[in-house]
Amino acid sequence: MQTTAEAPVRDGADRVRPLGIPIGTGVLVLLVMSALSLMVGATSTASPGEVVRALTGHADPQLTAAVQSLRLPRTVLALLIGAGLAVAGALIQGVTRNPIVEPSIIGVNSGAALAVALVTYTAGAASLRLGGINLMPFVAFAGASAAAALVFVIVAGVDMTPGRVALAGVTVALLANALVMSVVVLNDNAVQFLLRYLVGGVDGASWTSVRTLLPYSVIGLGCAFLLAKSVTVLSLGDDVARGLGLPVERVRLQSLALVVVLAGVAVAVAGPIAMVGLLVPHMARWSVGTSYLRVFGFSIVYGGVLLVGADVVSRVVVPTTEIPVGVLTAVLGTPYFIYLARRGRGVV
Fold it and tell me: Per the UniProt record, which residue ranges are transmembrane (predicted)?
């Protein structure tokens, strides 16, 4: 089994692509973006010194409350969601060998959103809590699982080509989105909640949201690293992977389960945020090669960079108001998706 794990990473491209420079650069950029996130508000901006005093409780009470209770949890939440969605995108691209899929494209985001919308419609938003327990991650996980399962049931028994998986995913996503819009139209009492949720954003972040997401993120990202070498082998093709002794079906099932966990819980907390899982894995493979141990490490850092940075921009691009971060990630990702679709053979 040792041969299985090591064979694909003896790749010349990986040897000539050092990991330290891109990761170090990414960490530095992430620190800068995080600092800006603590400084920048929708209506005011604090200096670095004021932020430091606010973090230590020695600033103006209003600024201290804004930094400690609003901006800091928002920054942490954006980092966790960006990392989770990026790794989820890398996982699903690896196991399907499809460079144009991400959780939202195979219906995971839409399925999670539909589950939350249906529960809100039938029992009200208050039903998403049971005492002190937040039920949204469990509801979203169930919806994401159902959507992912439906996609792979549709393509079962035929070749899992990139085009077929993407087409099945888009079909499921369109159906789920249509049902979500129906719920919005039919449920006047929850329209505001659902519309804000469905756009996707971290502007409502709190330490409760961070505590909800953190255990799933840590466990999901840790399990992804445990599967990294197997995903690297699987990305070479099923026949090669079986020849190297890899249990292909089991690894694919485990990887898809992790995609559902990472993306489903992110959607539960922040709503559907698209394109992070498409952009970052492509950057990773271009920067550090095809070893998924490296790709996941890169994706964690740059997924955080992308979402924290987009959240900062969302606060300043329109004066005195905020654009939901899900809108900005879609705007950033759509041109690149079009580029991939037009690039030619090997994509679809």
Answer: 20-40, 76-93, 105-126, 138-158, 164-186, 213-236, 256-280, 292-317, 323-341
- Greater model confidence, 231 or 340: 231
Measure the CA dihedral 229/232/237/241, to 10°.
-20
In a domain, 258, yes or no: yes
Range of the domain at 179: 2-342
- What pTM did the predictor assign? 0.86
The pLDDT of residue 127: 58
Length of the chain counted residue by residue: 348
CATH number of the domain where residue 262 is located: 1.10.3470.10
Is residue 348 situated within a structural domain? Answer: no
Position 10 scores a pLDDT of 39
**Using one digit for the tens of pLDDT, what is the confidence trace for 14-67?**
444 677 888 999 999 999 999 999 999 877 888 999 999 999 888 888 899 999
Contacts of 213 (CB under 8 A, 6+ apart): 77, 80, 81, 84, 137, 265, 266, 269
**What Cα–Cα distance (Å) separates residue 234 from each residue in 7, 91, 229?**
12, 11, 9
CB 267 within 8 A of CB 260: no
Cα separation, 318 vs 326, whole angstroms:
15
The tally of domains found in the chain comes to 1
